[in-house]
What we know:
- The structure holds two protein chains of two kinds.
- Chain A has one helix and six strands.
- Chain A is mostly beta strands.
- Chain B folds into two domains: 16-28 and 96-179, Gyrase A, domain 2 (2-Layer Sandwich); 31-95, Alpha-Beta Plaits.
- Chain B has helices at 41-48, 108-113, 159-179, and strands at residues 16-18, 21-25, 31-36, 58-61, 64-70, 73-77, 89-93, 98-104, 130-135, 138-146, 149-155.
- Chain B is globular.
- At the A-B interface, β2 of A face β9 of B.
Amino acid sequence: MRIPCPLCGLRDRREFYYYGSDDYLHRPGEGAAPEAWDAYLHLRDNPAGVTRDLWYHETGCTSWLVVTRNTVTHEILGAELVAGEGQGKPAPKGRRKAS
Amino acid sequence: MADLIAKSALAGHAPLTLAGVTLSEIALDPITSIAPFSGQDAAVAKALGLVLPAPNRFAEAKGARLVWTGRGQYFLIGSPTPKGLAGIAALTDQSDGWAALRLDGPGTEAALARIVPVDIRLAAFPEGAALRTAFNHMNAVLMRTGAQTVDILVFRSMARTAWHEVEAAMTALAARQRLT
């Protein structure tokens, strides 16, 4: 299994650490109802099909990634950086000179 | 203050040649980690007088090497701690934190192929390329400095383990060569 890291390129699964569903990115706001916190912390779907989860590129660029994959076919459909621009994410093409 | 004797991480390991590869310790220091603050990439490049390398690349200029080592992080190697970066980047002196190895010779790729889970052939890992990857169970920075030369940084505490594992790969290659 290989994951296409947006920074490093296609890399072996051994370089990554699995964290869990990307629900962790959707933290309830301050003062949210207890039900929202309960869902955030404990309720997870278990889809047969496309799922999005968090992986850490532990021995690579140390980025957190959202990986889209299919739990039935084991196909990896894509990977994006969790960090936004300005947090070390490369600028769009044309704005940074290649070395 | 007493004048202390600095020892390299692998002091006492003479270069080893087996199966067309020479493994040796090299001096890559000082090392300063530079992490530009949000939106300050251009200002940092200007202050350094160097172009920040794209991911998976390193650049050499004025006797210094600037290496991409992760998201928003670069290692400046072989140059004193740069001035003029206060307030625009986080700097850390890492000179004593790393051990540097060099693999040189026609068997370099065959030896590395037994250790790292990436394609390290010249076409995929050309001169000027830098990789962060797994070196067996260790974290490492690989730099392709020549057609048959790769420089490797590993955590200093793992220097002898890294040496041992490269030596094991070279020994296995040499054994195979004796059979054919």
